[in-house]
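Z., the sequence and structure:
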Amino acid sequence: MKNNLLKLLSITFLSFFFCYQSCLAEDTWTYTQSSEKLKLMTPAIALNLLKEGNSRFVSGKMKNRNFLQQAKLTKKGQHPFAFILSCMDSRGSPELIFDQGIGDIFAGRVAGNVINDDQLGGMEFATQVMGAHIIVVMGHTSCGAVKGACSHVTLGNLTQLVNKITPAVNTVKKDSHTASLDCDKAETVDMIAKQNVLNMIQQITEKSPVVKKLVDDNQVIIVGAMHNLATGVVTFI
């Protein structure tokens, strides 16, 4: 009886010990981006960080971050390496799906991930002023704003927003060689969402000479992405 009790206590202690060591190894991820790391980073490295982060999210192996400690570490400054323009959909937080912490990325969110002057200003600040190396325009599957554009929804200020997605609707309609689209079909909505991402990327360099110069100088890259709501997987396009 005594030996069994000692054995049980030993197992319990070892389990706690290895769990504790594992947590220490992860350092509960109090680390956040620094100016030194940002200066050494390239656009390719920045893209890879996002890909690795999404892989962790999909596999359920996200970093065990101490967000309060990260908040304290960044109280006097921030050095994000990326700007993510994504939809406001509650299921697509870029910090989560790319497994990033406080101070790691800028997140611009608006229904349909559309471009406007305010978002462009944010991108210019993120890249030219703060030194971010990548801009990601990310759409997602089953986007309500995209479906609204496809269905020609009108509602207050929402009307002008979905109208910005209409060019993508027209392109998909033209490529499909059809007079009308089935807006209730998930595949159709996702095709429009992807085209909308490509349209928004084009608008960034057309409307922002600041960002275009950074891209031309190979200091910044702009990439498109689609987030699958069902799987969590982000596919770069």
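DSSP finds eleven helices and five strands in the chain. The chain has a mean pLDDT of 89.

Let me know what you think.
H.
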